[in-house]
Hints:
- This protein is mainly alpha-helical.
- It is 56% helix and 8% strand.
- The chain has four helices and two strands.
- The chain has helices at residues 9-23, 29-36, 40-52, 69-76; strands at 56-58, 65-67.
- Strand 1 (56-58) and strand 2 (65-67) form a beta hairpin.
- Helix 2 packs across helix 3.
- The model has no long low-confidence stretch (mean pLDDT 92).
Amino acid sequence: xxxxxxxxxxxxxxxxxxxxxxxxxxxxxxxxxxxxxxxxxxxxxxxxxxxxxxxxxxxxxxxxxxxxxxxxxxxxxxx
Length: 79
């Protein structure tokens, strides 16, 4: 897929991680890194941002991440 000059690459990464999380029940930073091909430090920054915005939540026991109801609510507004 050809990259265009007028895109925000970090936004593409964020949406890619959201897509991965919506296709999986939950995933750890290392699992997200393996699936996406992004470094673990990049994944950590992305999930930290998404948790801060409340679009992703972290299970305190497993430390895995999953999408939150806020993301589902956002999708419901489109219907």
